[in-house]
Backbone:
């Protein structure tokens, strides 16, 4: 086992995954803890514990779902029931090393870009499909962070004016069509609105995974729902490709693990048809991310290393 | 008059404006020529003539409406009826100086960012309202150009699925609602569809300017049309602010000159209401660009100087 150069932690709503990586981005150590919620002190403590177990004296990177400023302040993290926590500064104080705290998708993209499916491209758009829809962009070799670290909120670009309600309070956001939650809701609505035959009628509870499994099993209603979801993902990607002209679009996140073979071709077709100058150019490929559940922690570690100038 | 450090040329569909600028971006020389169309040789000749009149031995920047690659190749310029012209290389060969050729809005933003309304901000989104809708973005101090120089096509982000037809061949693009052309078309459609009183009924031909003048004169139909246009501009800006988290949004272009006091507050209201985390943050101001018709030529000159490392 080679020496770790950094530790990265992906703080999920229930579990916290910490990885030590070597200079090539290979994982050389792994820790998993339960995520403390609604308690900033306990979160800091858990992060310190996980990082200390894996290595000492190396930079620590952390990815958290929510709004995180460039300075590493957790502005708003609904999954953790936390807001306004100076997480980066507190970790630096406790650990005595450089800490980088960023949005979870930002660090996942950093990982995919450095050692995953975006390797070798300097212009990469990433969208993650999960409970919500996240996003991040590398443009000309640099992460888009925005003036206050609030950039990259791809899940909340409007794709359908006056459309479905989104957890953010608006209507018609990409997230309201492309998240796992949205897929489940779309299926439930169709089941209620019609009497179309579907295996989903037999289930007590319908989540995104159940819809995806039914679609893989050729259930027509489930297939239509996933294609609708892919359509709106495609509409969102048209905006992103017109804005960023990426070499590749990466789709990550748990909800895409099984649904990708149905959702991605649908989205890719819309992109190929509708981007500006579609007749005069090749559309970027829409590809699955490669690092799976490790992407966030690996990316957080590599980002911390890069920012520390190591 | 101080010495020019670069020459910039804004190639419009009918006129070509060439400016020499000094080290502070002040205009120290000015030339105006008719734009040759559908003739690449004549265009190169006109650019060489305009540049040579103003200065010699300094970098030359050029802004052209259309798709321009990073290498300065004019991929597709519908206004000039040209495609696939290696304009940058040809200018360098003829003039013996460094040449930078870019999209017209890209250079206009470079000008506004360096010496105009975006000065001092490293994160600026610019949208220009004219015959079409153009756009450009500076993120973290760098112009978004994309992997092939095709980025920044803000006019063609979808704002209304299945909406109005756009000159690009798709439907529901921002351009189909926010351009001067779109404003005129929206007014004509309303006049045809109803019998609402409007001063516009007296006119033989309705263009965007006529609608704006009527709106300024409190014509209710014209006001509604401009507010609708501002609404969709706002929807497009919600996407851009969520993606880029800019410090300021600049609106330029001829069609905004008069309509800004009606269109901008409408768009700004939508942004303030709908960006992610609207309750927890200040929306960026939506402001008029400052350099007017000179923005493109000034920006082209400064970009050429910057790229030449002067």
Residues:
């Amino acid at each position: 086992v080679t020496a770790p150069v950094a530790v990265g932690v992906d703080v999920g709503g229930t579990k916290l995954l910490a990885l030590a990586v070597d200079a090539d981005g290979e994982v050389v150590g792994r820790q998993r803890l339960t995520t403390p919620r609604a308690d900033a002190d306990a979160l800091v403590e858990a992060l310190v514990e996980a990082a200390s177990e894996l290595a000492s004296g190396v930079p620590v990177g952390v990815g958290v779902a929510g709004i995180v400023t460039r300075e590493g302040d957790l502005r708003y993290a609904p999954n953790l029931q936390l807001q306004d926590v100076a997480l980066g500064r507190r970790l630096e104080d406790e650990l005595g090393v450089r800490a980088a705290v960023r949005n979870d998708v930002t660090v996942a993209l950093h990982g995919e870009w450095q050692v995953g499916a975006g390797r070798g491209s300097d212009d990469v758009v990433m969208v993650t499909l999960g409970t919500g829809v996240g996003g991040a962009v590398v443009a000309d070799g640099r992460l888009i962070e925005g003036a206050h670290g609030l950039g990259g909120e791809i899940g909340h670009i409007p794709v359908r004016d006056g459309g479905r309600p989104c957890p953010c309070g608006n209507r018609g956001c990409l997230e309201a069509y492309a998240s796992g939650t949205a897929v489940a809701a779309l299926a439930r609505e169709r089941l209620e609105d019609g009497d179309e035959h579907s295996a989903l009628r037999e289930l007590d509870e319908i989540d995104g995974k159940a819809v995806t499994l039914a679609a893989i099993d050729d259930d027509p209603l489930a297939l239509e729902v996933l294609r609708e979801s892919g359509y709106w993902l495609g509409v969102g990607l048209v905006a992103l490709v017109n804005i960023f002209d990426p070499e590749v679009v990466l789709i990550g996140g748990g909800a895409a693990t099984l649904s990708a073979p149905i959702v991605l071709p649908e989205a890719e077709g819309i992109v190929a048809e509708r981007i500006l100058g579609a007749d005069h150019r090749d559309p970027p490929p829409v590809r699955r991310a490669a690092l799976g559940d490790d992407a966030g922690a690996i990316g957080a570690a590599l980002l911390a290393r890069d920012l520390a100038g190591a």
Q: What stands out?
A: The radius of gyration of chain B is 20 Å. The longest strand of chain B covers residues 27-34. The CA atoms of residues 127 and 135 of chain B lie 4 Å apart.
